[in-house]
């Protein structure tokens, strides 16, 4: 187990370094610079600004500086928001994204599991069809459509919840619901298909033959193995949810970290873009690692393979 | 065992969620005034800030030597209780109030202003707006490496008198004294701003939640002349216009500065929204840059035909929501356009004074009527009723092209116009305007164009390299004077981005800048604008309007051509 862990951590470190390097090359290859504007400052002033942020140094030197900064967790100030360090910008948004993403993950996964089970109670029944339809809608409808409809209906139609902002607990409800929809749909589909498969297995048939009720068979015997496919997808899903959503943050004015991916790139705020990409990569690696370890713990057969 | 695993994951998620909520900054209650301030501010350091959202906050937490009347923009006492200007307009002597303090209670005097202004000019500090003070004696030499800080003629006489000497008159200098870059900066700032850095305005920074809001509250040490009514103000950082509108509609903000363009027709006409929608003349011009090095744009006949083929009235009414006014010159909002705006507001039942954008200046316009040898006419002679279609005559456009040897629709003689490329930044109304121009020029002149949309900074890169045929542009006044527009296209101007150079134009601009007589000065600006319109690399489209949604519960919000609304004058109406 410890060998696997060490091997996975080593692979994660290499992956993070590779992502950092490729991201650095891509963002620096983009035309334009962080201090470009409709009204450009005079050339000497622009030179002074670039000197201040070490942007006049050779690219390899800037790369090493950035790499060193991130290793020491001190990447320096943002280029567009120079009153703040990149680390403080990301750490200000991260708890908010974790809060929203965490709630959405828990809510979405729970609802998905329940829906998947309900659908399997009577395969081909109306409830099954309803769950399949809901899951398809949840996966295929773009977030901005769902969010727009919720704002229109719940905020302005019923007047129950604020349409945006980060002011109170009610302001969390709509963004969490929107974020939870896709993972719920995904979980419902995976759990349903897993349960359908498991309920045809010999152990399920035996249990039913012994007179155990169908619901009890599903819950006590089939659910556990049926959850394994869900666990394999939960790592990337959680990483995407926990590091913020550009669309949801924009529509609901949520000050998470998701917007930094796009705004940082559009503003050519090189340290911020790299920070956002690194954050996502690290969270993804951590959660994937966690999911793998969990899978090994859940499925004894994998322990043998991993040796 | 396995379901316990899933339960464990969910439990970890729940614990993580509650841990995150514990780490999340506390959510503040509602302030006396909530402003949907647009994008998250960059820097709040007066020397580093470049944007309008930043300026709105900085002018609230700082106070310059003068304040501007919220209605007329006339200078009044700020940190300076009085001032004298020499008869040639080159020497200013400010008498500062003696009881000034920073928000930490320490003394603020003329030496702080001198240090701040010298830092602004300092080439090593890299302040983007340092060139605003380049006309100070010794400043340019210092920035060019031929002088020193001590050579710059910004002097103190005791602790409460500040003197400044210019090489030539700067009639807009008092206005500049109220602007962001010339605010005093505390010595502890060291290039940064934040809640711990003292400021000197009637409010001070209390909370800065990134990408959420900035909270300012009354500064107990403020001893200036203003008596603001509001104790606390929130500036919401909301990027999306749709979200801003939603927040305003839900009563969570009192004033929003950004709305989606698609909503404007509704805001203008709906009975509930129209009284709240404030689209006032704004000193900004929307235009296209033309690359005169590339054929056929090097032919004046083609440039004139392109302009004459555009129905700017239709453009403003059908594509831009109806608030902007057609522009036929480069200095926006001449008198007929202002008059038209007044008529439009009156037709909507809104009676409000609209101040003249640039007092004393009568702009010029590219007209379809030839007067003498030129199509450029003084706007002072144009009636407001003639303004919408003053420079629109597609028949004349085709005739001009035909006479110049180009092929026009309906004939098969002459050279075929080569296709042109329309370059514009993606987003906003840029795309629909480019597509509308493409259609217009195809239908009226038979000219093919290709549209090239680019992300903003890539677009700027291409525009700076003058690698375009026609390039979407706009320019917003730094100060209320024709100079802010007409110095843009001199040969040595850093933002011309056209490669255009005209010695006569440069000479006239130089003369206008040095002229002390106000009337002569305005004549020189007119002559310069005439050359720009006749020979220059621009295609004016429309004079810009502000776009504010303001709650009817607020008082003290006035139209002004710089869209600057001093929060010191804003209050809440009595119930």
In short:
With 307 residues, chain A is an all-alpha fold. Chain A has helices at 2-29, 43-52, 59-71, 86-121, 126-140, 143-157, 170-199, 202-209, 214-226, 228-242, 246-252, 258-266, 270-298, 300-306. Chain B is an alpha+beta fold and 575 residues long.
Report on the structure:
The complex is a heterodimer of chains A (307) and B (575). Chain A is 77% helix and 0% strand. Chain A has helices spanning 2-29, 43-52, 59-71, 86-121, 126-140, 143-157, 170-199, 202-209, 214-226, 228-242, 246-252, 258-266, 270-298, 300-306. In chain A, 45% of the residues are buried. Chain B is an alpha+beta fold and 575 residues long. Helices cover 29% and strands 19% of the residues of chain B. Chain B contains 16 helices and 23 strands. In chain B, the strands form six sheets. Chain B has a seven-stranded mixed beta sheet, with helices on both faces. In chain B, strands 14-20-13-19-17-18 form a six-stranded mixed beta sheet, with helices on both faces. Classes of the chains: A mainly alpha (307), B alpha+beta (575).
Number of beta-strand segments of chain B: 23
Low-confidence stretches of chain A: none
Percentage of residues in strands of chain A = under 5%
Mean pLDDT of chain B: 91
SS strand fraction of chain B: 15-25%
List low-confidence stretches of chain B: none
| Rg result of chain A | 24 Å
Helix content range of the residues of chain B, please?
A: 25-40%
Rg from alpha-carbon coordinates of chain B: 26 Å
The N- and C-terminal alpha carbons of chain A lie at a distance of 8 Å
Structural class of chain A: mainly alpha
Basic shape of chain A = flat
Largest Cβ-defined interface: A-B, 74 and 77 residues
> Which sequence of SSEs, written as H and E, runs from N to C of chain A?
HHHHHHHHHHHHHH
Fraction in helix of chain A: over 70%
Largest sheet of chain A: none
Q: Would you tell me the overall average pLDDT of chain A?
A: 87
Q: Can you count the helices of chain B?
A: 16
**Which descriptor suits the 3D outline of chain B?**
globular
What oligomerization state is this entry in?
Answer: heterodimer
